[in-house]
Automatic annotation (TrEMBL):
Record-annotated Methyltransferase small domain positions: 24-111
Family: Belongs to the eukaryotic/archaeal PrmC-related family.
Keywords: Methyltransferase, S-adenosyl-L-methionine, Transferase
Descriptive protein name: Methyltransferase small domain-containing protein
Cellular component aspect of the GO annotation: eRF1 methyltransferase complex
InterPro entries, per the entry: DNA_methylase_N6_adenine_CS, Euk-Arch_PrmC-MTase, PrmC-related, SAM-dependent_MTases_sf, Small_mtfrase_dom
A single BP term in Gene Ontology: methylation
């Protein structure tokens, strides 16, 4: 099974599970996870983000729509001895969460614009296919996020310059959210990490 190494730590990645890349590392390198926080990661993939976060003594729930991804993430959590700190649930976006609320929510969504004739019928397609304009999951996420946040909260998500950065900024402003961004240029696009929190009065 392929291996990804992050800061000397090895993570197995099943061939049919999204392999952590620049977007994953942009998130990982900028996460500030506090001890005792209740955190949620949507679309955990191989589990690398939740596992690194759980080592900071946070309590994690990690979801994914793919059974193969969840199996891979559970195995990695066991190998890193944090399996008791992460609860894995199968489902799309917030569907498996119920009424729970979190201090921190993390999402590396499918964000690439894909036309119908480009769509592939496999598990990996779901990891990057953001629909015709790349916003299929980003918009759903931003529309629902407030229902799952505690009174003091933060959330982080990644998107591509190809999927409407200005539109995302306008949505966050309308919701009166305070946010900052970090970027990373890769071949044909720029990745944006949005770091969002409740606006202080």
């Amino acid at each position: 099974m392929p291996i990804v190494i992050y800061k000397g730590q090895e993570f197995q990645v099943h061939p049919k599970v999204y392999k952590p890349a620049e977007d994953s590392f942009l998130l990982l390198n900028n996460l500030d996870i506090k001890k005792g926080e209740k955190a949620l990661e949507l679309g955990t993939g191989c589990g690398i983000i939740s596992i690194v976060g759980a080592k900071s003594e946070a309590e994690f729930i990690a979801t994914d729509i793919s059974s193969k991804a969840l199996s891979c993430a559970k195995e990695n959590a066991k190998n890193h001895q944090v399996e008791e700190k992460i609860e894995f649930r199968k489902g799309n976006l917030f569907q498996p969460i119920g009424n729970e609320r979190f201090d921190l929510i993390i999402f590396n969504p499918p964000y690439l614009p894909v036309s119908g004739d480009e769509t592939l019928d496999n598990n990996l397609d779901a990891a990057w296919n953001g629909g015709r304009n790349g916003r299929k999951f980003i918009d759903k996420f931003l529309n629902q996020i407030q229902n799952y946040l505690k009174s003091k909260w933060r959330f982080f998500f990644v998107q591509s310059s190809l999927s409407g950065i200005q539109e995302t900024q306008e949505i966050l402003k309308k919701k009166n959210f305070q946010f900052s961004t970090k970027t990373k240029k890769i071949s044909f696009e720029k990745l944006y990490l949005f770091m969002v929190e409740k606006k202080t009065q």
